[in-house]
Write a structure and sequence with these properties.
With 326 residues, this protein is mostly helical. The protein is 75% helix and 0% strand. It has helices at 3-21, 35-68, 80-94, 100-103, 106-126, 133-160, 165-175, 184-203, 205-211, 215-220, 225-247, 253-261, 269-293, 302-322.
Length: 326
Amino acid sequence: MNRATLIFAVLLAFIAALSLLAGKVWIDPATTPNAALILMELRMPRAVLAIAVGAGLGAAGAAMQGYLRNPLADPGLFGIAPMAALGAVGSFWFGALMPPAIATWSLPAFALAGAALGMALLALIAGRTPSGAGGGIALFTLAGLMIASLAGALTALAITLAPNPFALSEIVLWLNGALTDRSWREVWIAAPLVAIGIGVLALSARSLDALTLGEEAAQSMGVDPRRLLWLLVVGVGLTVGAGVAVAGIIGFVGLIVPHLVRPLTDRLPSSLILPSALAGACLVLAADSAVRVLPFVTELRLGIALSLIGAPFFLWLLLKMRRGLL
Protein backbone atom coordinates (compact mmCIF):
# COMPACT_ATOMS: atom_id res chain seq x y z
CA MET A 1 0.00 0.00 0.00
CA ASN A 2 1.57 3.28 -1.10
CA ARG A 3 1.10 6.67 0.54
CA ALA A 4 -1.64 7.80 -1.87
CA THR A 5 -3.69 4.65 -1.23
CA LEU A 6 -3.51 5.17 2.52
CA ILE A 7 -4.42 8.88 2.28
CA PHE A 8 -7.43 8.37 0.04
CA ALA A 9 -8.62 5.31 2.00
CA VAL A 10 -8.72 7.37 5.19
CA LEU A 11 -10.37 10.27 3.35
CA LEU A 12 -12.98 7.95 1.87
CA ALA A 13 -13.87 6.57 5.29
CA PHE A 14 -14.38 10.11 6.61
CA ILE A 15 -16.49 11.25 3.62
CA ALA A 16 -18.56 8.06 3.73
CA ALA A 17 -19.45 8.63 7.38
CA LEU A 18 -20.35 12.26 6.68
CA SER A 19 -22.34 11.30 3.57
CA LEU A 20 -24.63 9.02 5.56
CA LEU A 21 -25.67 11.93 7.74
CA ALA A 22 -25.83 14.68 5.08
CA GLY A 23 -28.99 15.70 3.27
CA LYS A 24 -31.81 18.21 3.22
CA VAL A 25 -32.50 16.78 6.67
CA TRP A 26 -29.34 15.92 8.61
CA ILE A 27 -29.63 12.68 10.52
CA ASP A 28 -28.79 12.36 14.18
CA PRO A 29 -28.77 8.59 14.85
CA ALA A 30 -29.66 9.25 18.49
CA THR A 31 -32.70 11.45 17.98
CA THR A 32 -33.96 11.22 14.37
CA PRO A 33 -37.03 8.94 14.13
CA ASN A 34 -36.47 5.85 11.96
CA ALA A 35 -32.80 6.80 11.56
CA ALA A 36 -31.68 3.19 11.08
CA LEU A 37 -34.29 2.61 8.36
CA ILE A 38 -33.36 5.82 6.52
CA LEU A 39 -29.66 4.99 6.70
CA MET A 40 -30.01 1.39 5.53
CA GLU A 41 -32.61 1.89 2.80
CA LEU A 42 -31.83 5.38 1.48
CA ARG A 43 -28.45 6.80 2.47
CA MET A 44 -26.36 3.62 2.54
CA PRO A 45 -27.16 2.27 -0.95
CA ARG A 46 -26.67 5.72 -2.45
CA ALA A 47 -23.29 6.09 -0.74
CA VAL A 48 -22.14 2.61 -1.79
CA LEU A 49 -23.24 3.29 -5.36
CA ALA A 50 -21.36 6.61 -5.41
CA ILE A 51 -18.23 4.80 -4.21
CA ALA A 52 -18.59 2.10 -6.87
CA VAL A 53 -19.25 4.54 -9.74
CA GLY A 54 -16.44 6.88 -8.68
CA ALA A 55 -13.97 4.05 -8.16
CA GLY A 56 -14.64 2.67 -11.60
CA LEU A 57 -14.28 6.03 -13.33
CA GLY A 58 -11.11 6.88 -11.38
CA ALA A 59 -9.40 3.58 -12.16
CA ALA A 60 -10.44 3.77 -15.82
CA GLY A 61 -9.06 7.31 -16.10
CA ALA A 62 -5.69 6.30 -14.63
CA ALA A 63 -5.41 3.32 -16.97
CA MET A 64 -6.46 5.39 -19.99
CA GLN A 65 -3.91 8.13 -19.30
CA GLY A 66 -1.23 5.49 -18.82
CA TYR A 67 -2.07 3.68 -22.04
CA LEU A 68 -2.39 6.75 -24.23
CA ARG A 69 0.45 8.53 -22.35
CA ASN A 70 -1.72 11.60 -22.45
CA PRO A 71 -2.68 13.42 -19.22
CA LEU A 72 -5.81 14.77 -20.93
CA ALA A 73 -7.22 11.32 -21.74
CA ASP A 74 -10.61 10.44 -20.32
CA PRO A 75 -12.62 7.18 -20.36
CA GLY A 76 -15.19 8.92 -22.55
CA LEU A 77 -12.67 8.77 -25.41
CA PHE A 78 -13.28 5.03 -25.71
CA GLY A 79 -16.86 5.59 -26.78
CA ILE A 80 -18.10 3.05 -24.26
CA ALA A 81 -19.90 5.58 -22.04
CA PRO A 82 -21.76 7.14 -24.99
CA MET A 83 -22.74 3.66 -26.20
CA ALA A 84 -24.02 2.78 -22.73
CA ALA A 85 -25.99 6.03 -22.73
CA LEU A 86 -27.41 5.18 -26.15
CA GLY A 87 -28.49 1.79 -24.85
CA ALA A 88 -30.17 3.40 -21.84
CA VAL A 89 -32.01 5.86 -24.09
CA GLY A 90 -33.17 2.87 -26.12
CA SER A 91 -34.81 1.47 -22.99
CA PHE A 92 -37.09 4.51 -22.87
CA TRP A 93 -38.29 3.53 -26.33
CA PHE A 94 -38.52 -0.24 -26.07
CA GLY A 95 -38.82 -0.91 -22.32
CA ALA A 96 -42.58 -0.37 -22.41
CA LEU A 97 -42.92 -3.24 -24.89
CA MET A 98 -41.59 -5.75 -22.36
CA PRO A 99 -43.51 -7.62 -19.64
CA PRO A 100 -43.69 -5.58 -16.38
CA ALA A 101 -41.43 -8.01 -14.49
CA ILE A 102 -38.67 -7.52 -17.06
CA ALA A 103 -39.35 -3.86 -17.84
CA THR A 104 -38.10 -2.76 -14.40
CA TRP A 105 -34.65 -4.04 -15.37
CA SER A 106 -34.73 -2.71 -18.91
CA LEU A 107 -32.73 0.50 -18.31
CA PRO A 108 -29.61 -1.07 -16.75
CA ALA A 109 -29.90 -4.06 -19.08
CA PHE A 110 -30.05 -1.87 -22.20
CA ALA A 111 -27.21 0.31 -20.91
CA LEU A 112 -24.99 -2.69 -20.24
CA ALA A 113 -25.87 -4.06 -23.67
CA GLY A 114 -24.86 -0.72 -25.19
CA ALA A 115 -21.55 -0.79 -23.30
CA ALA A 116 -20.93 -4.37 -24.45
CA LEU A 117 -21.67 -3.36 -28.05
CA GLY A 118 -19.23 -0.46 -27.71
CA MET A 119 -16.55 -2.82 -26.37
CA ALA A 120 -17.20 -5.26 -29.21
CA LEU A 121 -16.95 -2.52 -31.85
CA LEU A 122 -13.76 -1.17 -30.30
CA ALA A 123 -12.17 -4.59 -30.14
CA LEU A 124 -13.32 -5.43 -33.66
CA ILE A 125 -11.79 -2.26 -35.12
CA ALA A 126 -8.67 -1.73 -33.02
CA GLY A 127 -7.97 -5.27 -31.84
CA ARG A 128 -7.05 -6.51 -35.29
CA THR A 129 -4.17 -4.12 -35.92
CA PRO A 130 -1.06 -6.08 -36.92
CA SER A 131 1.33 -3.28 -36.02
CA GLY A 132 3.00 -2.59 -32.70
CA ALA A 133 1.63 -0.70 -29.74
CA GLY A 134 2.01 2.66 -31.46
CA GLY A 135 -0.26 1.85 -34.37
CA GLY A 136 -2.65 0.15 -31.97
CA ILE A 137 -2.89 3.22 -29.74
CA ALA A 138 -3.59 5.55 -32.65
CA LEU A 139 -6.19 3.23 -34.12
CA PHE A 140 -7.66 2.67 -30.66
CA THR A 141 -8.09 6.40 -30.08
CA LEU A 142 -9.61 7.06 -33.48
CA ALA A 143 -11.95 4.08 -33.18
CA GLY A 144 -13.08 5.32 -29.77
CA LEU A 145 -13.74 8.81 -31.11
CA MET A 146 -15.70 7.40 -34.04
CA ILE A 147 -17.84 5.22 -31.75
CA ALA A 148 -18.45 8.13 -29.36
CA SER A 149 -19.45 10.39 -32.24
CA LEU A 150 -21.81 7.80 -33.69
CA ALA A 151 -23.38 7.07 -30.30
CA GLY A 152 -23.82 10.79 -29.64
CA ALA A 153 -25.53 11.32 -32.98
CA LEU A 154 -27.89 8.36 -32.46
CA THR A 155 -28.69 9.53 -28.93
CA ALA A 156 -29.52 13.01 -30.26
CA LEU A 157 -31.76 11.39 -32.90
CA ALA A 158 -33.54 9.34 -30.23
CA ILE A 159 -34.12 12.49 -28.18
CA THR A 160 -35.42 14.37 -31.22
CA LEU A 161 -37.89 11.59 -32.01
CA ALA A 162 -38.99 11.10 -28.39
CA PRO A 163 -42.57 9.77 -28.41
CA ASN A 164 -43.89 12.33 -25.91
CA PRO A 165 -42.70 15.24 -23.71
CA PHE A 166 -42.63 13.03 -20.62
CA ALA A 167 -40.23 10.58 -22.29
CA LEU A 168 -38.12 13.49 -23.54
CA SER A 169 -37.86 14.88 -20.00
CA GLU A 170 -36.97 11.47 -18.58
CA ILE A 171 -34.22 10.96 -21.17
CA VAL A 172 -32.65 14.38 -20.65
CA LEU A 173 -32.75 14.07 -16.85
CA TRP A 174 -31.20 10.62 -16.96
CA LEU A 175 -28.40 11.70 -19.32
CA ASN A 176 -27.42 14.43 -16.84
CA GLY A 177 -26.41 11.74 -14.36
CA ALA A 178 -27.65 11.32 -10.78
CA LEU A 179 -27.83 8.90 -7.88
CA THR A 180 -31.24 10.11 -6.74
CA ASP A 181 -33.64 7.36 -5.63
CA ARG A 182 -31.14 4.60 -6.28
CA SER A 183 -31.47 1.46 -4.16
CA TRP A 184 -29.60 -1.72 -3.31
CA ARG A 185 -30.78 -3.14 -6.64
CA GLU A 186 -28.54 -0.71 -8.54
CA VAL A 187 -25.70 -1.48 -6.12
CA TRP A 188 -25.93 -5.18 -6.89
CA ILE A 189 -25.96 -4.44 -10.61
CA ALA A 190 -22.97 -2.11 -10.70
CA ALA A 191 -20.64 -2.96 -7.80
CA PRO A 192 -19.63 -6.51 -8.89
CA LEU A 193 -19.00 -5.39 -12.48
CA VAL A 194 -16.94 -2.40 -11.33
CA ALA A 195 -14.89 -4.60 -8.99
CA ILE A 196 -14.16 -7.06 -11.80
CA GLY A 197 -13.28 -4.17 -14.13
CA ILE A 198 -10.82 -2.66 -11.64
CA GLY A 199 -9.26 -6.10 -11.20
CA VAL A 200 -8.82 -6.42 -14.97
CA LEU A 201 -7.27 -2.95 -15.17
CA ALA A 202 -4.89 -3.89 -12.33
CA LEU A 203 -3.67 -6.80 -14.46
CA SER A 204 -2.54 -4.28 -17.07
CA ALA A 205 -0.53 -2.18 -14.60
CA ARG A 206 2.91 -3.66 -15.20
CA SER A 207 2.48 -3.51 -18.96
CA LEU A 208 1.46 0.14 -18.68
CA ASP A 209 4.61 0.79 -16.64
CA ALA A 210 6.72 -0.73 -19.43
CA LEU A 211 4.87 1.35 -22.01
CA THR A 212 6.13 4.56 -20.37
CA LEU A 213 9.59 3.63 -21.73
CA GLY A 214 8.27 3.61 -25.29
CA GLU A 215 6.50 1.13 -27.48
CA GLU A 216 9.54 -0.69 -28.77
CA ALA A 217 11.08 -0.94 -25.31
CA ALA A 218 7.81 -2.27 -23.91
CA GLN A 219 7.63 -4.98 -26.54
CA SER A 220 11.27 -5.89 -25.94
CA MET A 221 10.32 -6.38 -22.27
CA GLY A 222 7.67 -8.89 -23.25
CA VAL A 223 4.58 -6.67 -23.37
CA ASP A 224 1.96 -8.08 -25.73
CA PRO A 225 0.19 -5.03 -27.26
CA ARG A 226 -2.90 -7.00 -28.21
CA ARG A 227 -3.30 -8.52 -24.75
CA LEU A 228 -2.86 -5.07 -23.20
CA LEU A 229 -5.49 -3.60 -25.51
CA TRP A 230 -7.97 -6.35 -24.64
CA LEU A 231 -7.39 -5.85 -20.92
CA LEU A 232 -8.14 -2.15 -21.29
CA VAL A 233 -11.21 -2.69 -23.46
CA VAL A 234 -12.70 -5.16 -20.97
CA GLY A 235 -11.62 -3.22 -17.87
CA VAL A 236 -12.82 0.18 -19.05
CA GLY A 237 -15.95 -1.34 -20.55
CA LEU A 238 -16.97 -2.95 -17.26
CA THR A 239 -16.11 0.00 -15.00
CA VAL A 240 -17.55 2.74 -17.20
CA GLY A 241 -20.46 0.74 -18.62
CA ALA A 242 -21.66 -0.38 -15.19
CA GLY A 243 -21.48 3.19 -13.89
CA VAL A 244 -23.47 4.62 -16.79
CA ALA A 245 -26.03 1.82 -16.49
CA VAL A 246 -27.04 2.88 -12.98
CA ALA A 247 -26.17 6.57 -12.77
CA GLY A 248 -26.23 8.07 -16.27
CA ILE A 249 -23.42 10.17 -17.71
CA ILE A 250 -20.98 11.43 -15.05
CA GLY A 251 -18.02 13.10 -16.73
CA PHE A 252 -14.61 14.46 -15.81
CA VAL A 253 -13.97 12.08 -12.87
CA GLY A 254 -11.56 9.96 -14.89
CA LEU A 255 -9.81 13.12 -16.11
CA ILE A 256 -9.49 14.90 -12.75
CA VAL A 257 -8.63 12.11 -10.35
CA PRO A 258 -5.25 10.89 -11.73
CA HIS A 259 -3.95 14.47 -11.53
CA LEU A 260 -4.88 14.63 -7.84
CA VAL A 261 -3.18 11.31 -7.15
CA ARG A 262 -0.06 11.59 -9.31
CA PRO A 263 1.92 14.01 -7.07
CA LEU A 264 1.56 11.51 -4.19
CA THR A 265 3.06 8.61 -6.16
CA ASP A 266 6.09 7.75 -8.27
CA ARG A 267 3.85 8.61 -11.30
CA LEU A 268 3.95 5.09 -12.72
CA PRO A 269 0.57 3.72 -13.89
CA SER A 270 0.87 0.74 -11.52
CA SER A 271 1.01 3.18 -8.59
CA LEU A 272 -2.00 5.14 -9.84
CA ILE A 273 -4.81 2.68 -10.53
CA LEU A 274 -5.81 1.69 -6.98
CA PRO A 275 -5.40 5.14 -5.36
CA SER A 276 -7.22 6.68 -8.34
CA ALA A 277 -10.11 4.31 -7.68
CA LEU A 278 -10.21 5.48 -4.05
CA ALA A 279 -9.87 9.14 -5.05
CA GLY A 280 -12.64 8.76 -7.64
CA ALA A 281 -14.87 7.27 -4.96
CA CYS A 282 -14.06 10.24 -2.69
CA LEU A 283 -14.83 12.77 -5.43
CA VAL A 284 -18.18 11.30 -6.52
CA LEU A 285 -19.27 10.64 -2.94
CA ALA A 286 -18.36 14.18 -1.84
CA ALA A 287 -20.11 15.69 -4.89
CA ASP A 288 -23.22 13.60 -4.29
CA SER A 289 -23.29 14.68 -0.65
CA ALA A 290 -22.92 18.30 -1.70
CA VAL A 291 -25.81 18.22 -4.20
CA ARG A 292 -28.04 16.81 -1.44
CA VAL A 293 -27.43 19.71 0.92
CA LEU A 294 -27.55 22.57 -1.59
CA PRO A 295 -30.63 24.74 -0.91
CA PHE A 296 -32.26 24.24 -4.32
CA VAL A 297 -35.91 23.40 -4.88
CA THR A 298 -34.93 20.33 -6.88
CA GLU A 299 -31.71 18.44 -6.39
CA LEU A 300 -28.88 19.50 -8.70
CA ARG A 301 -27.96 16.62 -11.00
CA LEU A 302 -24.67 14.99 -10.08
CA GLY A 303 -23.41 14.97 -13.67
CA ILE A 304 -23.97 18.73 -13.94
CA ALA A 305 -22.21 19.39 -10.63
CA LEU A 306 -19.14 17.43 -11.66
CA SER A 307 -19.11 19.11 -15.06
CA LEU A 308 -19.08 22.50 -13.32
CA ILE A 309 -15.98 21.33 -11.44
CA GLY A 310 -14.39 19.45 -14.31
CA ALA A 311 -14.60 22.05 -17.07
CA PRO A 312 -12.49 24.69 -15.21
CA PHE A 313 -10.10 21.93 -14.16
CA PHE A 314 -9.71 20.89 -17.78
CA LEU A 315 -9.02 24.51 -18.77
CA TRP A 316 -6.38 24.71 -16.03
CA LEU A 317 -4.73 21.56 -17.43
CA LEU A 318 -4.71 23.07 -20.91
CA LEU A 319 -3.03 26.24 -19.61
CA LYS A 320 -0.42 24.15 -17.79
CA MET A 321 0.20 22.17 -20.95
CA ARG A 322 0.63 25.37 -22.98
CA ARG A 323 3.29 26.52 -20.52
CA GLY A 324 5.06 23.17 -20.75
CA LEU A 325 4.29 22.34 -17.11
CA LEU A 326 2.31 19.18 -17.84
